[in-house]
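hey can u check if this looks right to u? its 326 residues, i copy pasted from the old doc so theres a chance i mangled smth
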Amino acid sequence: MSRPLFSAFRAAFRSGGAPFGSRAAPRSAFNFTAGLGAGAGFTFGARRASSTVVSTSTRSTLFRPITIILAFAPILCGYLGVWQVQRLKWKLALIEEIDHNLTKAPIALPDHVNMSALPDFAFRRVLLKGHFRGPPILQGPQTRDGTAGYHLIVPFDRSAEGGSTVLVNQGFILTAEGDAIREGRKPVPGLAADGGPGEEVVIEAMLTKVDNDAKSYFVPPNQPHDNQWFWKDIPEMVEWVGGEAAGVQPVLVDVIDHGDSGVPASMRMAKGVPVGRPPTIELRNQHLTYVITWFSLCAVTTVMLGLVIRSGRTKKIPKRRPFGRG
């Protein structure tokens, strides 16, 4: 660089004058400013304001993924908490109904059951007189004490006493026994050896509660042509054993096993004898725990949401200073 040109630049920095005449300085990122007074000098980004504040608004905070998740979490947890409260009320009412009905003495099942009044007699002990007849229904898989098997459901004919035929769940049998009955290799308990109607008997049973939602999404459909029943579809079972034309009503009762024989249930199952249900019913009631859990999660996520929003509002962003003298 020549000496005269170097002297011109030095004079511009010292005096603030224009080394190349009075022409305005170009507007660029790096600008040698001349003729602007004593405060002029070497600046970066002359087109920017002398001071800038970069801040995150409350709106941008609300649309962050964590904020959106925390906004929906209290709503979902609160909804599940309210739902569990409703389930708790339902379970308490059901337990009270069961305990009330189990304390009552057994009653004779009417010859022709009033189907509209049947739900009011759920879990009532009843007495039936008649005889078993085919065909048997194998409903399962079922488990009892960790052992796989079926529920053996057989039509119970009460026509000799002027009554209708109903379905009777004799109880639990092992898988091998059920398969042998389905294939005709073993006789059906309660029926004659040739498969005809059995002898007249009196049984004590319990009326079951009709569950219209007994089939869940994961349970396969029943296959009546193979006598495979994965869930208790009572109307379809009734049609399979003869239906209304054969005097069969859509009523299902479970035989009660009082254990009076003194023979353990495992030994009776091994001999192919169906084991009925116990005379008592124990229902788990964990809904209060679920209520506390969901409402606690609702409160915690609500507090977390408030803290996130508050931190977004109070966050301080430092000013960006100009690069140079200002």
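The longest strand covers residues 147-157.
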